[in-house]
Write a structure and sequence with these properties.
The chain is of the alpha/beta class. The chain has 3 domains: 6-121, Probable tRNA modification gtpase trme, domain 1 (Gyrase A, domain 2), CATH 3.30.1360.120; 125-206 and 379-427, tRNA modification GTPase MnmE domain 2 (Four Helix Bundle (Hemerythrin (Met), subunit A), Up-down Bundle), CATH 1.20.120.430; 220-370, P-loop containing nucleotide triphosphate hydrolases (Rossmann fold), CATH 3.40.50. Helices cover 44% and strands 17% of the residues. The protein contains 15 helices and 12 strands. The strands form 2 sheets. The protein has a 6-stranded mixed sheet. Strands 8-9-7-10-11-12 form a 6-stranded mixed sheet, sandwiched between helices. Helix 7 runs antiparallel to helix 13. The longest helix has 25 residues, at 151-175. It is flat. It starts with 5 loop residues before the first strand and ends in a 7-residue tail after the last helix.
C-alpha cells in the first residue's frame, strides 16, 4: 500500500480564501511536476509561486508550492502541497489533474494512517489528530494536545518496560524449572506488577472525564411547565434558540445545543415540562424528557422561585440526584421565603442574568466529581484506551494472584503476556490490523 502515491483535497469543500491539495508518496514530486510548473531545483520547506496547468498547458490556477522531503514530513513520505485559490471547481480540477497523472485518491484518514505506519506517531497520537479537530472546548483542546504530544503512548510504553522484566523472570523459570523464584525476586516482581497496576488504575479513572471532554456532559434542563427552562437555555447560549412563551407547554420536543462552561463542553438539552399530558403530542414530549433524564450526566432543575413550592420535585436515582443543580428562577420578582429550606439552590433571573455565574461555577463543581479537570496528565480520552487498560489491569491482577499462590509459571507468563498485548493495543504495537480500519475510517478525506 505504501508504494503508491495518494492525493486529496485537505481543506473543507466550499469557497474560501485558500484551498490545499496534498499529494504523498514516492512519486509525489514527479506527479506534481506534470501539473505545476516547478523551478529547476525545488528546495524542501521553501514556498514557490507556481502556476497549475491543464492538459493543454492552459492555466488552471496560481498558488504556492510546498515540498516536504521524507522522512521529514507528516506522513514520513515525500509530500507536495499546492495552496491555491479556494474555489470549489478550481481546487477539484487540480486534484483531478494529479489523479490523471498517476496519483490515487486517498482514503479517509490515509495520510495520518501512513504517518502511523511509517513510525511518525503512535496510535494514540494518530487518534488525537481527530480529537484535536473535533475539540469543542478549551479543556478538550488541551487534552487532545496532551495526547498528540504522546502522553498516553509514553505512559503505556513505560508500563510495558516495567512488565517486560517480570515476564523475563517468569519465562526463565519455565526454561530452567529447577530454579525456583526466590522470596527476594518474588517480592521485586510483585512490586513491579503493583506499580503498573497503580498506573493503569489512574488512567482508567480518567476515562469518564475523557468522555465528557470529548463528547460533552449531557446536561438536561428540566422542571415543570412555564418555569423558564427555555429562557435559561437561551441565556446560557447567548442567543434565542428556543421559543419562549407564557403559555405552558410551548416546548414539546427536546432541543439540544453545545456550549462550554469554564472550558468544559456541555451538551445542553431543553426538555418539555413535566406534568400530566394534555394531548398525544405533549405526551410524547414528556416521554422524551424522561428518557433524557435517564441519560443525563447533570440535571439542572428549574423552579419558579418567586412562588411557593407547588409541584413535586424531580424524582431522580441517588447517583443522579447528587449531580442535580436547583435553580430558583425569576429571582427578579423576589424569592419566596419557602425556598430558604432548599440547600444549595441558586437564585437566578433570566431577565437580568443575575446568578448565571453562580450557575456556571456550580456546573464546574458537579462535573469535577467525574474526575480531575486538570489535563496536565495523560487522559484516557476514548473507550478503546479504557478497555485496553482495564484488560491489562485484569491480567496483572490474575498474574499477581497466581504468583502469590506460587502457581505454575506458565499460567503467570500467560497473564503477563496478555497484559503486554493489551498495552500494545493502546499504542498500536500488537494485532494492530484489526483496529486500524475502524480508527482511520472516522477521519476526513485528506487528513
Amino acid at each position: 500500500m505504501l508504494n503508491d502515491t495518494i492525493a486529496a483535497i485537505s481543506t473543507a469543500l466550499g469557497e474560501a480564501a485558500i484551498s490545499v491539495v496534498r499529494i504523498s508518496g514516492p512519486q509525489a514530486l514527479a506527479i506534481a511536476a506534470q501539473v505545476l510548473k516547478l523551478p529547476v531545483q525545488v528546495t524542501p520547506r521553501q514556498a514557490y509561486l507556481v502556476p497549475a496547468v491543464d492538459t493543454d498547458g492552459g492555466a488552471l490556477d496560481h498558488g504556492l508550492l510546498l515540498y516536504f522531503k521524507g522522512p521529514a514530513s507528516y506522513t514520513g513520505e515525500d509530500i507536495v502541497e499546492f495552496h491555491g485559490h479556494g474555489g470549489v471547481l478550481v481546487t477539484q480540477r487540480v486534484l483531478e489533474r494529479w489523479l490523471a497523472c498517476g496519483a490515487r485518491a486517498a482514503h479517509p484518514g490515509e495520510f495520518t494512517q501512513r504517518a502511523f505506519l511509517n513510525g511518525k506517531m503512535d496510535l494514540t497520537q494518530a487518534e488525537a489528530v481527530m480529537d484535536l479537530i473535533h475539540a469543542q472546548s478549551t479543556l478538550a483542546l488541551r487534552a487532545a494536545n496532551e495526547q498528540l504530544s504522546g502522553g498516553i503512548g509514553r505512559a503505556a510504553t513505560a508500563m510495558q518496560q516495567e512488565i517486560i522484566p517480570v515476564l523475563a523472570h517468569i519465562e526463565a523459570c519455565i526454561d530452567f524449572p529447577d530454579e525456583d523464584i526466590s522470596p527476594e525476586t518474588g517480592a521485586d516482581l510483585l512490586r513491579r506488577i503493583d506499580a503498573v497496576l497503580v498506573q493503569a488504575t489512574q488512567l482508567i479513572a480518567t476515562s469518564e472525564q475523557g468522555r465528557i471532554l470529548r463528547h460533552g456532559a449531557r446536561t438536561v434542563i428540566s422542571g415543570a411547565p412555564n418555569v423558564g427552562k427555555s429562557s435559561l437555555l437561551n441565556v446560557l447560549l447567548g442567543f434565542e434558540r428556543a421559543i419562549v412563551s407564557p403559555t405552558a407547554g410551548t416546548t414539546r420536543d427536546t432541543i439540544e445545543e453545545i456550549i462550554q462552561v469554564h472550558g468544559i463542553p456541555l451538551r445542553l438539552v431543553d426538555t418539555a415540562g413535566l406534568r400530566e399530558a394534555g394531548d398525544d403530542i405533549e405526551r410524547v414530549g414528556i416521554q422524551r424528557t424522561e428518557r433524557e433524564l435517564e441519560r443525563a450526566d447533570l440535571v439542572i432543575e428549574v423552579v419558579d422561585g418567586s412562588t411557593a413550592p407547588g409541584a413535586a420535585r424531580l424524582s431522580l436515582p441517588p447517583d443522579l440526584a447528587r449531580r442535580r443543580i436547583l435553580i430558583l428562577n425569576k429571582s427578579d420578582l423576589g424569592i419566596h421565603p419557602a425556598w430558604t429550606a432548599a440547600p444549595g439552590a441558586i437564585p437566578l433571573s433570566c431577565v437580568t442574568a443575575e446568578g448565571i455565574e453562580a450557575l456556571r461555577d456550580a456546573i464546574r463543581a458537579v462535573i469535577a466529581t467525574a474526575g480531575p479537570l486538570a489535563v496536565d496528565h495523560p487522559i484516557a480520552i476514548n473507550a478503546r484506551h479504557q478497555a485496553a487498560f482495564e484488560r491489562c489491569a485484569a491480567c496483572l491482577l490474575a498474574a499477581k494472584s497466581a504468583l502469590e499462590r506460587n502457581e505454575a509459571p506458565e499460567f503467570i507468563a500467560l497473564e503477563i503476556r496478555d497484559a503486554l498485548h493489551a498495552l500494545g493495543d493502546v499504542i498500536g504495537q500488537v494485532d494492530v490490523e484489526r483496529i486500524l480500519d475502524v480508527i482511520f475510517s472516522t477521519f476526513c478525506i485528506g487528513k
